[in-house]
């Protein structure tokens, strides 16, 4: 949680714009944009800032955070809750965000099958025993398609004012590039990954040989996902404790789909009804040839739409007595409605019981009684 | 009358058991969108009221705070730190600085005769249940407050907490820390504890943790603390915070006809009440719209002419609260910048420039499609947020919340809405109980509560209340009883002569050609209904005008003579500009009472007589007539009512309506208003109002009142201390300035309608609305105040809202019982409604006056009208 302010502290001499922590997160975000993973886990997620940034990435459907400190996660975890907009305008994508309390030295089946696992400034906080288990847990057990590991480059410390030993008191070690790379290459070799090195936080001009302030290894799994392996592992008992879970509303959930669809249908039908009534009224006002005051508003787009629809007689809406009849086919032909449910059958199934239909189930019925107007 | 008045009126149930339909009853209302008192309005979905300007010092005035009752022996603890505590990191949303509950304003201690008891005695006992849960803490519970020092001094708050929590073993998992003040649920072993932490530079820092306070459960700091913890809990329950309340987005009520989505939720607060610390929970509904500001602008564009588009946008949008797509913050639209667009750049915190389009795309993956849309401007209310200047918002990324004026005018919509939001008592109680169930069934919440040693009672608070006797209605020698259950006497008094009828000798009736018939019918009907009231009436001067504002004005200029009693205008539409122009002319340039009525209201044969009756009564009041009275035993008392209207559109000026009774029977009222301009305090104007009212009283009574009782409405949450320390002294000053020997007794009562408090009457197993006249002055009142609740009105749908009365200054020596009875009596005296209303009549009159001035006239009306109820 403190990795951000420690950077801020050092900005008197070396100033990174944007701040280094942000650059690290942006690096991950760019990576996500490039590979478009569906399932992403952040190990050592701390204050959930990276997860928060990632939840806006439209490709991600499962987002998981893991940290050894539940209280640090809890402090800010609510930034991961769905926003009002997620309820107001549910999207096609489903998204589940879960936070687990646990250690990267332990295996839990909930971490299997990920596309991307990030370990931002994590490994240097691990005790020796934990660090030993780490490759087996992450690369051997979780075995995601991509792993990103970032850690301080100790060679850069000479440029950071006041840093005598490590950048943070909780750091158990800080590696130079050679140390990190040899560890990474060995890990990659053992678990059949390829690895590329990069970093964020450029060294000042003339000191390029020092390397990045933060060194990053991007590991890509060389073998395709093996299903059998994962299944056998799934039987393992869970060791992580769920701290937080948010299931975002999605149109994949029939409840939200139905709500959104019915809302759209009724709203669309209201507009058809209104323009139909306005049309009738303007006709009748014309013959009465009275009033300059009432201005009839035919929604331009809809009137055009209706004219086209009128060509197909069976789809024409009409008024009978106090009721406006709007054929379901007409409603279904509206782009938004159409898009929501795809097939006419599904459309009929979803709106059943939610709107009033004519006895033959052919048309939507709306009452024209409009008090007082 | 406008749609709003109609909507309100129609939304109200018909007058039960009478032939007079609700339509009729309300149709004679003025064209002013009027707020019908006495009946619950569908206000659940409303956005919070705009807050008036206040002196900057207000927030700090808690220094004057006193220890709560019942803990007088204890030291006044925790006061010095309260400011620091407000900065506490766990205050969500950067911390609301406002003290919405007016904590620490101790007014009761200054009122001598209620030191012992502030309770009334009269009436019959009734079993009540209120929407409060007791907060239970462990015996001997206390909150331990520590001061944390760093040596060498550490600046960054995050660093400070990181260093401190390296010692979590010592401190424990349950804590609250704001960088210098630490709260713990348990006591550390030593009073002063020294520990050492290491910074990343390997620097050793000495941290000294010193116990500064042991806070008892009822200390103000503790209460703030409870509220913070409780908000944490609401968040843990996955409720969404919008404004001050928390909502459950999982099971929304959708009203697709109007693109509305209603979230049920809770309004809650924990406070020290008379005997206990309690959690007050009420059901709140948030109206959201699945429509962005841009959608709204588009649809508006189709509805109005091009050149009126911008004005229309301003009119419809300014003042609305929007919710952004990318976070869950709400903003008030203060302005629209038509020259701005999303391609404009702004400077980020790190100094780099970025366009809105790029920013929202990059940060939140939000696509802005319309690059030519204007931008919205929101002025942050709090200066302390560190944000400089206004907030710029993109219409496409903002959802509308709440209802617009236009939607409130839509009767059908309000009906659809009220079906869902008006819960009858038992259902409301069930919904409130849900929050308790959520809390009890959530493991994490239970753990959090246990860690702090807190819990909530599982039952709602029950206690006895009193129902005071109903009043007798006196009308010109007749005495009427009304059915207390309905609190309405329209049926009983129909056809009875008025106390003081005013003759219609010389009056104008203006109408357009199309409305000739309805105007004529109105006259016929008035001829039928006025004789029994005792009103003498001659034929009106009928004037036909074109349906243009100028035509009306020209006709008025030409036809009004010094003898004209009143002008009646039949309007063909609820166009506000015409109404405003007529009212403005007749209230300022040419002071004549006027009555506007919509042709449509008159056109229904089945309600025509009822409408005519209502219009006749209203016209009579406007000309200075009197309808009925109740028995007022107090002599030589001047009752004053004050309410405010905050104009959010034009220059944000506030208007205070001021009315004062002129006679013993409370049937005549003098009125003035104070228009507050920028940089001027409203109270200066009120002082002038009070001075003229006293002069006027002297003219009427040949003496000065020996008592002045002020009912002050329109006081926002958190403004009480301003009132106590500024407004009351000004009133006293004003009274003193009248004369050396003049020393009247002053009582100032703050009236509050917007409450979360609800009462249910228990009849066996059933819960019902308490009957009108229910008085509560125990349990849910505040120990530091001389306050009480009255349920004065009756409602037919949903739950009745009590009104809260807080006597903040009182030298009257009147017993609490008398003040309560007088207040209830005054709720009978509002002439626009033949029944008991929610607030004392002077408050409602003041409200009507302020509303008329604020909406239509925008300046002080002619004083020649001041002795009449022309603003009804």
TrEMBL record, chain A:
Keywords: Magnesium, Metal-binding, Methyltransferase, RNA-binding, RNA-mediated gene silencing, S-adenosyl-L-methionine, Transferase. This is Small RNA 2'-O-methyltransferase. One of its GO terms (molecular function) is metal ion binding. It comes from Psilopogon haemacephalus. The lineage of its organism: Eukaryota, Metazoa, Chordata, Craniata, Vertebrata. Gene3D superfamilies: Vaccinia Virus protein VP39. The keyword Lipid biosynthesis does not apply. Its cofactor is Mg(2+). Its EC number is 2.1.1.386. GO terms for biological process: piRNA processing; RNA methylation; siRNA processing. It is an enzyme of class 2 (transferase). GO terms for cellular component: cytoplasm; nucleus. The gene is Henmt1. Belongs to the methyltransferase superfamily. HEN1 family. It catalyses: small RNA 3'-end nucleotide + S-adenosyl-L-methionine = small RNA 3'-end 2'-O-methylnucleotide + S-adenosyl-L-homocysteine + H(+). It comes from the Eukaryota.
UniProtKB/TrEMBL annotation, chain B:
One of its GO terms (cellular component) is cytoplasm. SUPFAM superfamilies: PAZ domain (SSF101690), Ribonuclease H-like (SSF53098). Pfam families: ArgoL1, GAGE, PAZ, Piwi, Piwi_N. One of its GO terms (biological process) is germ cell development. Its cofactor is Mg(2+). Residues 292-402 form the PAZ domain. InterPro entries: ArgoL1, GAGE, PAZ_dom, PAZ_dom_sf, Piwi, RNaseH-like_sf, RNaseH_sf. SMART domains: GAGE (SM01379), PAZ (SM00949), Piwi (SM00950). Residues 1-81 are annotated as: Disordered. Residues 1-11 have a biased composition (Basic residues). Keywords: Cytoplasm, Developmental protein, Differentiation, Endonuclease, Hydrolase, Magnesium, Meiosis, Metal-binding, Methylation, Nuclease, RNA-binding, RNA-mediated gene silencing, Translation regulation. It is found in: Cytoplasm. CDD domains: PAZ_piwi_like, Piwi_piwi-like_Euk. One of its GO terms (molecular function) is hydrolase activity. Residues 566-858 form the Piwi domain. Residues 28-44 have a biased composition (Polar residues). Belongs to the argonaute family. Piwi subfamily. This is Piwi-like protein 1. The gene is Piwil1.
């Amino acid at each position: 949680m403190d990795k951000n302010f420690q950077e801020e502290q050092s900005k008197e001499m070396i100033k990174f714009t944007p701040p280094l922590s942000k650059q690290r997160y942006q690096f991950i975000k760019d990576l996500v944009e490039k590979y478009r993973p569906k399932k992403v886990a952040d190990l050592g997620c701390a204050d959930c800032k990276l997860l928060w940034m990632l939840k806006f990435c439209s490709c991600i459907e499962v987002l998981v955070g893991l940290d050894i400190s539940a209280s640090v996660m809890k402090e800010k975890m609510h930034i991961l809750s769905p926003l009002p907009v997620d309820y107001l305008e549910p999207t096609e994508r489903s998204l589940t965000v879960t936070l687990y309390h646990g250690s990267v030295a332990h295996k839990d089946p909930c971490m299997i099958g990920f596309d991307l696992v990030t370990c931002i400034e994590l490994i240097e906080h691990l005790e020796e025993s934990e660090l030993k288990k780490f490759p087996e847990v992450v690369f051997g057990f979780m075995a995601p398609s991509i792993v990103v590991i970032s850690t301080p480059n100790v060679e850069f410390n000479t440029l950071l004012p006041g840093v005598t030993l490590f950048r943070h008191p909780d750091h158990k070690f800080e590696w130079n590039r050679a140390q990190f790379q040899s560890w990474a290459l060995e890990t990659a070799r053992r678990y059949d990954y390829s690895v590329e090195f990069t970093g964020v936080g450029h060294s000042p001009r003339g000191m390029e040989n020092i390397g990045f302030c933060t060194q990053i290894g991007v590991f890509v799994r060389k073998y395709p996902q093996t299903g059998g392996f994962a299944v056998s592992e799934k039987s393992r008992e869970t060791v992580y404790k769920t701290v937080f879970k948010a299931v975002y509303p999605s149109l994949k959930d029939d409840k939200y789909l139905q709500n959104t669809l019915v809302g759209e249908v009724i709203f669309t039908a209201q507009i058809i009804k209104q323009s139909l009534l306005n049309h009738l009224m303007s006709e009748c006002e014309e013959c009465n040839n009275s009033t300059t005051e009432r201005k009839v508003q035919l929604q331009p787009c809809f009137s055009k739409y209706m004219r086209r629809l009128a060509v197909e007689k069976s789809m024409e809406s009409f008024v009978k007595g106090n009721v406006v009849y709007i054929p379901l086919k007409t409603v279904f032909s509206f782009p938004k409605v159409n898009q929501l449910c795809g097939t006419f059958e599904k459309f009929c199934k979803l709106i059943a019981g939610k709107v009033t239909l004519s006895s033959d189930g052919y048309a939507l019925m709306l009452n024209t009684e409009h008090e007082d107007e | 009358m406008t749609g709003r008045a109609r909507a309100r009126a129609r939304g109200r149930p018909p007058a039960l058991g009478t032939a007079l339909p609700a339509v009729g009853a309300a149709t004679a209302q003025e064209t002013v969108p009027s707020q019908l008192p006495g009946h619950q309005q569908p206000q659940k979905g409303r956005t919070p009221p705009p807050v008036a300007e206040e002196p900057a010092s207000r927030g700090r005035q808690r220094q004057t705070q006193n220890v709560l009752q019942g803990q007088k022996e204890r030291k006044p603890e925790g006061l010095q730190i309260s400011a620091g505590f407000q900065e506490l990191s766990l205050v969500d949303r950067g911390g609301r600085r406002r003290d919405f509950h007016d904590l620490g304003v101790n007014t009761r201690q200054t009122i001598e005769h209620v030191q012992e008891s502030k309770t009334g005695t009269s009436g019959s006992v009734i079993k009540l249940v209120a929407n409060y849960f007791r907060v239970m803490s462990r015996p001997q519970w206390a909150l331990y407050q520590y001061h944390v020092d760093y040596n060498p001094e550490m600046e960054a708050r995050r660093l400070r907490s990181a260093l401190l929590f390296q010692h979590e073993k010592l401190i424990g998992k349950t804590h609250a820390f704001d960088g210098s003040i630490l709260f713990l649920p348990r006591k550390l072993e030593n009073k002063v504890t020294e520990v050492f932490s290491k910074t990343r530079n390997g620097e050793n820092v000495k941290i000294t943790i010193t116990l500064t306070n042991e806070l008892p459960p009822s200390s103000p700091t503790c209460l703030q603390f409870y509220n913070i913890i409780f908000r944490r809990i609401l968040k843990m329950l996955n409720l969404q915070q919008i404004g001050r309340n928390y909502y459950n987005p999982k099971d929304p009520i959708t009203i697709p006809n109007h693109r509305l989505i209603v979230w049920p939720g809770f309004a809650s607060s924990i406070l020290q009440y008379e005997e206990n610390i309690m959690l007050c929970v009420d059901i709140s509904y948030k109206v959201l719209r699945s429509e962005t500001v841009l959608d709204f602008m588009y649809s508006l564009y189709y509805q109005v002419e091009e050149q009126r588009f911008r004005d229309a946008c301003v009119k419809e949008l300014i003042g609305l609260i929007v919710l952004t797509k990318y976070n869950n913050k709400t903003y008030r639209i203060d302005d629209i910048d038509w020259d701005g667009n999303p391609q404009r750049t702004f400077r980020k915190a790190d100094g780099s420039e970025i366009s809105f389009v790029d920013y929202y795309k990059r940060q939140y993956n939000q696509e802005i499609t319309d690059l030519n849309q204007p931008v919205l401007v929101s002025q942050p209310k709090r200066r302390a947020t560190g944000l400089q200047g206004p907030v710029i918002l993109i219409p496409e990324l903002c959802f509308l919340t709440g209802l617009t004026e236009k939607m409130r005018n839509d009767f059908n919509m309000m009906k659809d809405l009220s079906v869902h939001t008006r819960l009858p008592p038992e259902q409301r109680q069930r919904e409130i109980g849900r929050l308790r169930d959520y809390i009890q069934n959530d493991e994490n919440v239970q753990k959090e509560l246990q860690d702090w040693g807190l819990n909530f009672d599982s039952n709602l608070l029950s206690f006895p209340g009193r129902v005071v006797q109903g009043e007798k209605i006196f009308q010109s020698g007749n005495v009427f009883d009304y059915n207390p259950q309905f609190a309405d006497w329209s049926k009983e008094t129909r056809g009875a002569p008025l106390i003081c009828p005013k003759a219609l000798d010389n009056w104008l009736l203006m109408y357009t050609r199309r409305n000739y018939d309805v105007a004529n019918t109105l006259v016929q009907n008035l001829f039928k209904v006025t004789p029994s009231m005792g009103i003498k009436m001659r034929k009106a001067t009928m004037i036909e005008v074109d349906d243009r504002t100028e035509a009306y004005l020209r006709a008025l200029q030409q036809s009004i003579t010094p003898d004209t009693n009143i002008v009646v205008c039949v309007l063909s539409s609820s166009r506000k500009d015409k109404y405003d122009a007529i009212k403005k002319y007749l209230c300022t340039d040419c002071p004549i009472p006027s009555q506007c009525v919509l042709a449509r209201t008159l056109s229904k044969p089945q309600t025509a007589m009822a409408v005519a009756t209502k219009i006749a009564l209203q016209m009579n009041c406007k000309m200075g007539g009197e309808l009925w009275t109740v028995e007022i035993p107090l002599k030589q008392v001047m009752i004053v009512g004050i309410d405010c209207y905050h104009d959010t559109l034009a220059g944000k000026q506030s208007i205070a309506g001021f009315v004062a009774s002129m006679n013993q029977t409370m049937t005549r009222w003098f009125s003035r208003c104070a228009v507050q301009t920028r940089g001027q305090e409203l109270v200066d104007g009120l002082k002038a109002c009070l001075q003229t009212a006293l002069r006027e009283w002297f003219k009427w009574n040949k003496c000065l009142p020996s008592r002045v009782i002020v009912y002050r409405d329109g006081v926002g949450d958190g403004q009480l201390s301003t009132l106590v320390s500024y407004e009351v002294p000004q009133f006293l000053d004003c009274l003193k300035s009248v004369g050396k020997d003049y020393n009247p007794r002053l009582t100032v009562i703050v009236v509050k309608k917007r409450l979360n408090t609800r009462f249910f009457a228990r009849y066996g197993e059933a819960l019902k609305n308490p009957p009108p006249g229910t008085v509560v002055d125990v349990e849910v009142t505040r120990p530091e105040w001389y306050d009480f609740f009255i349920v004065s009105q009756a409602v037919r749908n949903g739950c009745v809202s009590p009104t809260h009365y807080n006597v903040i200054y009182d030298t009257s020596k009147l017993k609490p019982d008398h003040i309560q009875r007088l207040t209830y009596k005054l709720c009978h005296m509002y002439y626009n409604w033949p029944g008991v209303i929610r607030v004392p009549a002077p408050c409602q009159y003041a409200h009507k006056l302020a509303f008329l001035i604020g909406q239509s006239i925008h300046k002080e009306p002619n004083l020649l009208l001041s002795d009449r109820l022309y603003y009804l």
